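B., you asked whether I could sanity-check this one before it goes into the benchmark set. Here's the sequence:
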Amino acid sequence: MCRWDGLIRSWIQNEIRENRCQIDKLTKLASYCLMNVGTFEAKNKLSALLDRAQQGEVIQITRRGKPIAELRAVIAGRSPRRVFGGERELVKSLADDFTAPLDDFKDYEA
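And here's what the prediction gave me:
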């Protein structure tokens, strides 16, 4: 832990509460205060680590000293807003008989 850990943690908690920034930007800012935990310790202390992550801390889980995962808080209800017709530029053109019945289903039509 670094000496700024308490200050950064409280600032991150305030930002998360006020939803002013996305959590990814905040965790990048505080990345120099990451807590590194081995897989064995993470397995044994998962509930304590989840409590710390919920408070805004980012916990990096390592295997043999190499980072393999990050444990961080999730902001509920934040998903990308989907707009109707938002990807219309991906559709170049439709065939003229797009709505016509398929030949494969002629045996099933009565």
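One thing to flag: The first helix runs from residue 5 to 18. Otherwise nothing jumped out at me.
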